[in-house]
Task: structure prediction
Amino acid sequence: MKIGVFDSGYGGLTILREIVKALPGYDYIYMGDNARAPYGSRSFDVVYQYTLQAVRYLFDAGCQLVILACNTASAKALRTIQQRDLPDIDPTRRVLGVIIPTVECLDKISRNNHIGVVATQGTIDSHSYKIEAEKLHSNMTISELACPMWVPLIENNEIDNPGAEFFIQKYCRMMLEMDPDIDTLVLGCTHYPLLYDKIAEFMPDNVRIIAQGEIVARSLTDYLSRHPEIEKTISRGGTVRFLTSENPEKFNRLASLFLPIEVNAERISL
Ligand code: DGL
Result:
């Protein structure tokens, strides 16, 4: 059995990169639903249906465990899949997301409990970060801001152009207007780590900017050590297979923005 990593498109490769760095021995399947991305502006029902199709595909392809690297899918589909679908599909399989592991460590990162979260419209509208933070931490102020222009800038490889800076600065300024006291900024979208350096230019020096890859990799390491019944089913060939619902040549080319290795993706239909 393998570990599946699912994203609406390329962004989840930022999560896969850190998972494979931390746990290089296992076999992985990465799936990008590039033909139907972006998910960030889609309704709850559509994100849920698309994500469920992807999870079923990854299970059929031999994944014991699927990580929803996509924040939008984690926000809109994870809970329903875990609670409603998994018991019927196969109660021994697991689906995990990226929001709870991120929220879990916020109290160790922030000194004043003022946290900013930037993400897609869908993730922000779900208020998942706020809801989970209220469950896990007392007295934490979460300010949530959708940055709908950031994913298109990355997907179109425009991040080094002056027009991109305008939109990066715009949302950073809006976040600081929402809460001038934030000392932690969560990049709650798979793509945003690619903007890390530019966001840092527009944030005060005391604000820690949190990309999720390492957090998710740490959380998965911990999960596997606490669940030997899952861990022992996963094969150890050190391979990564890439699947995309779009043109594989296009996937291979754009994946190089996210991963420092050669990618040879296979096309699938969901
Ligand atoms: N993967 C999505 C997320 O992390 C961003 C891209 C999209 O909108 O599909 O929310």
Summary: The first helix runs from residue 13 to 22.
